[in-house]
Amino acid sequence: MIDASFVIAPKQRNSREENEKIKKGEGKELWNDKPQKKNHKDIDARWTQKGGQNYFGYKAHAKVDKKSKFVKGCLTTSASVHDSQALPNLLDESDKGQEFYADSAYVGQQKILKQYDLKDKICEKGYRGLSLSDEAKNQIEINRKYVLG
What is the pTM of this model? Predict the structure, then answer.
């Protein structure tokens, strides 16, 4: 199983000029004359939006063994990185041939799944005017069973 969660960071109160420098990768040069202020600034966290709500911080991407529920791997990215972007860095040779449980954020990753010979158990997403098939609804229930135990 693979999923990502937001890790909220304290919001930064930077000027527009400071934010532009941070986005350009020049954030380490800021506040050199004020070391205590610099220690309180987080130049790696980013903004993102999900479900109409804004988040500032990071994402924790975790790979979990579905039977033991032990974390087998994790990766931290800025919040603006899409969940599926971390997938290549989480998978390794020990995952070959296993079932791959994930939410609909990982739809479209068939190339990577094929590379590791993973069995696709990704939840599909319903769309307005197009309901999920009975098979897709069943897969969602199976995924819930493994996640909730």
Answer: 0.78
